[in-house]
Write a structure and sequence with these properties.
Layout (H helix, E strand, L loop, with lengths): L2 H9 L9 H10 L1 E5 L4 E3 L7 E7 L2 E6 L5 E7 L4 E2 L13 E4 L3 E7 H10 L1 H27 L2 H16 L1 E3 L2 E5 L4 H8 L3 H13 L3 E4 L2 E4 L2 H6 L2
Antiparallel strand pairs: 1-8, 2-7, 3-6, 3-8, 4-5, 4-7, 9-10, 10-12, 11-12
Helix pairs in contact: 1-2, 5-6, 6-7
Length: about 230
């Protein structure tokens, strides 16, 4: 893709708001942009942390394999998000595997190139430092959830959080376009697919949610939130 196309993508990522045209041109010149097909692995856990990625189109999941061989999804990334940025904090190897959940467009920049740009852009440096801090806080909160909440509470907590972030409120209900299977939700909440399916049916019978293959409706957000 040419420089103008790269600039268009960068200008639509909030992280780079306020950067001058010259600096945006410099950044765009160092980016490599590529299309990723659904289920393609972007990088594996334990690989050297040599690049940082920007997601422009599609969804990407970050996951780990537990000691008993189960996949645990640590994050679902949406357009405009950065990932692999822990390379900037001194991490020598990846902690997660990154996989495209559907066809995606990603921008890649080497760790060394981005570090050079950050030295000349204190505001961008501060934004990325804050981003890394917030992500580490989120990881700590998620670990606390896994330790102190039971499986039903974890699933309900995920539904509430996802609805708050991506749901569309219509009247008193919240509609969520969901790309997740019950197995995906199980992987996100460290539980089993059967637990998720059973809980969804229970919540549906109580009139708290409704769902289909690619849509979830939170019919009573307040009541659901009290259960998490």
């Amino acid at each position: 893709m040419n420089i103008r196309t790269k600039l268009w993508y960068l200008e639509n990522i909030n992280l780079f708001d306020g950067m001058s045209k010259d600096k945006m041109d410099m950044l765009a010149g160092k980016l490599k942009m590529q299309k990723i097909v659904k289920n393609e692995i972007i990088y594996f856990a334990s690989e050297p942390s040599l690049s940082i990625f920007l997601l422009k189109e599609g969804k990407v999941k970050l996951s780990r394999i537990s000691e008993d061989g189960k996949e645990i999804i640590t994050a679902i990334l949406n357009p405009g998000e950065i990932f692999g940025e822990l390379a900037l904090s001194g991490s020598s190897g990846r902690e997660d595997t990154a996989i495209a959940m559907d066809d995606a467009v990603i921008c890649t920049i080497s760790k060394d190139s981005l570090e050079e740009i950050l030295l000349e852009n204190p505001k961008l440096n501060l934004k990325i430092t804050k981003l890394i801090g917030l992500k580490l806080q989120r990881v700590e909160r998620d670990l606390e959830t896994l330790v102190f909440k039971d499986s039903n509470q974890r699933v309900i907590g995920f539904l509430s959080k996802y609805a708050e972030r991506f749901g569309k409120k219509i009247g008193t209900e919240i509609f969520i376009k969901s790309p997740f299977t019950h197995q995906d939700i199980a992987n996100l909440t460290a539980t089993s697919r059967q637990t998720v399916s059973t809980l969804f049916n229970q919540l549906k019978s109580k009139g708290l949610i409704d769902f289909s293959r690619n849509k979830i409706i939170i019919k009573d957000p307040a009541k659901l939130s009290k259960l998490k």
